[in-house]
Amino acid sequence: MVSEFFIQEQQLSNITRTLVKDEDGKSLYLLVGRWGTRGDALSLYAMSGELVASIKQTSFMFGSRFELYKGFKKVGVLRKILNLNADFYYIQHLHWTVSGDIKNHHYSIYQMNHKIMEMSKATLFTGDYFNLNVVDDDDAPLCICIAAVLDYWLYNKKKNNGRKPIMGLGTCQ
Questions:
Q1: Which SUPFAM superfamilies did the record assign (predicted)?
Q2: Which H or E element spans position 150?
């Protein structure tokens, strides 16, 4: 069974805490942190306060790298591989690939031929959202962290004004 998760557009790279909701609008996760320099990290918490996943920037020069953690256990390293007409990313250890139209938030995560997640956009009565369709709920926290990094890269390309996007400072919306 595929589960849907929604993140309001303009929230992932904004100066705010980011809530991840289900299709009924119920808050499931809170994503907080900061990006821009080596050692910066995003942490994903269940609404109970339990840390469920995080992603840490380990390299800034010569291609950013991000370590993925499920709870406190390192499970993978995200790297950008290609940047031609379509971006291509690889997550070592998990053997996941991310490909598609990152710029327009329409991409998929695969492990071999098995789809892990699909990202698209959705317009609901409360606004525009990123819609993550995740095949296995156990993969959802890592998928949310990966989506945050891809949005950061996209946001950073667009912004590119020398300032660091900061997450986790502000109020929940």
A1: Tubby C-terminal domain-like (SSF54518)
A2: helix 140-159
Contact by Cβ (8 Å): 58, 69: no
The CATH number fitting domain 3-159, selected from 2.40.160.200, 3.30.110.40, 3.30.2130.10, 2.40.37.10 = 2.40.160.200
Nearest to 102, CA basis, from 35, 140, 171, 155: 155
Task: Say how many C-beta atoms besides its own lie within 10 A of residue 50's C-beta.
Answer: 9
Question: pLDDT, tens digit, for every residue of 15-37?
Answer: 457 899 998 889 999 999 876 66
Task: Output the six-digit token pair for 36.
Answer: 């821009």
CA 31/CA 20 separation, integer angstroms = 8
- 54 closest CA partner among 141, 116, 118: 141
Give the pLDDT confidence of 129-158 residue by residue, as tens digits.
899 999 999 999 999 999 988 887 776 665
Give the span between the Cα atoms of 162 and 142, in whole angstroms: 28
Please, is 143 exposed, middle or buried when counting C-beta atoms within 10 Å of its C-beta (0-12, 13-18, 19+)? buried
Q: Which residues pair with 10 in a beta bridge?
A: none
pTM for this predicted structure: 0.83
Contact 35, 42 (CB under 8 A): yes
Spans of all domains in the chain: 3-159
Q: Are 66 and 57 in contact (CB under 8 A)?
A: yes
